[in-house]
Amino acid sequence: MERVWWKEAVIYQVYVRSFMDSNGDGVGDIPGLISRLDYLKELGIDVIWLNPVYKSPNDDNGYDISDYRDIMDEFGTMADWEKLLAECHHRGIKIIMDLVVNHSSDEHSWFLESRKSKESPYRDYYIWRPGREENGVRRPPNNWESLFSGSAWEYDERCGEYYLHLFSRKQPDLNWDSPRLREEIFEMMAWWLDKGIDGFRMDAVHLMQKPAGFPDAAGKPTHRDGYVYDEKLYSHNPGLHRIFHEMNTRVLSKYDCMTVAEMNMTTPEMASDYVAPEREELNMIFHFEICSLPRYTKERKRIRTLNSIQDRWYRATWGKGWNSQFFNNHDLPRQVSVWGDDDRFRVESAKLLGTYLHTMPGSPYIYQGEEIGMTNYPFKSMGEINDVALKNQWAKCAAEGESEEHFLKRNLKWTRENGRTPMQWDATENGGFTSGSPWLKVNPNYKEINVQAARRDENSVFHYYKRLISLRKSHPVMVYGDYRLLTPRSRKIVAYTRNLEGTSLLVMLNFSGTPLSVRLPRSLRKTQGSLLLSNYGEENSPVKTRLRPWEAAVFMLVKN
Ligand code: ISL
Ligand code: CA
After folding, report:
1. CB of 52 closer than 8 Å to CB of 75
2. Do 244 and 392 fall within a single domain?
3. Based on the domain organization, do 303 and 424 belong to the same domain?
4. Which residue from 229, 318, 353, 455 has the highest number of Cβ atoms inside 10 Å of its Cβ?
């Protein structure tokens, strides 16, 4: 397998708005991030993925971009950004930027021009369609529901047409069928790469190519308004591969950069067509099969399903492309609250999850705060919620008579707002995130869970993550070793080996709060080995099969 830096890299995601506020306005910013780069260096990460920092009216926290070549006022200036890049590179840290080109903001100059008239040279940068009439009533061009609730079409009085927005109405979809639009985006990408960035995380790109003819979605409406949500219909349409190929050959291939494409609805069967190097498209994908699993699968089936998903992805990508590993990000609740036990075994289970992410095949992505075991927030009312997606959904449900209590019960554990509360730096007010009033409340557990406390405590999640990252650097088997699952039938134990040129690792994880034994296959029962890492902290131990609650143990095996 070809060795490249982005396969070896540990990537750290920074949600700037919530990372570090430098000027007391309650909003994280670029100077704040710069002031914490030494912390990231100490952790040992290789790449920072910056959530969008471009000019934006912030209807969706920066995912609605009004100028792709400028920086959001609240976050700082272009000079601040340039300093950030220089300070990162100086420390040997790379930066990848969020590329949000399925849609722009409705305040982008292209859209302002586009909506002026049907003859505007920018008209076809977006997707405009006449409505249809039903019993004398004007209706949108089709029945699609937006990912953020309500019709995916917005009527525009000026020309009497609708524009498509798969997300909020302030996020009109760009029209990738327009050669001029494609050209603009490619130029913009090259402009950032020329500035020196090291790649892109590509936002919701499975949606860039719309289905020909914009057919109605089949299926049941989500709400009484009658719109039907069918992400499968909106996704992976013919033409998408051509877009990526063009993007790659025209722009990406000219730089030593990495790409990771966020693509819900991607199956392992589709994956290699996107990530096989000879196809010249992408490097890796964030698929959603694992992160959406806990919400939609029964608890007792969770681990077996996790294993089978990983197995399918491994077979689909190993030797043919590359994969990514993550349990949380800015769109998801905190991993220790969902996959671990954020109460009795917070530290143990946070370490176990980290062990898994860093020893599975694929590049690990750490989401800010994960490395100190940050947890979900105890939200109590919708009044505390800022997120446009959840607010829109609540408006629909409230109109249909659902009580706030019931709605919160269904959604709070899963809302992405949990992942967006500010980073907890120390035990001072607001966790040291801001000297002002934070844009979103800091989790009240900041007095106990914070960076300063974690750094002082040798047994913290932070020190364990440091160790994981440094082991990944000194043991190529953790990156390039092939993978074999040993426990396909277990409900709570995950054990596997990684093998590379005579070096073997054995990883054993107990995803439960009860002690359990691992049943190793016969071939491994007499194996000798030494403990490389354990979240219970001991140094020398022969291979053992009894695991304590949430115990994670990694052994280096000795060939008999
Ligand atoms: O998190 C979701 C809904 O609450 C997902 O449906 C999410 O919107 C989808 O995966 C696409 O996510 C990306 O694009 C969105 C943005 O809101 C997300 O933050 C981003 O990660 C629109 O740009
Ligand atoms: Ca600020």
Report:
1. no
2. yes
3. yes
4. 353
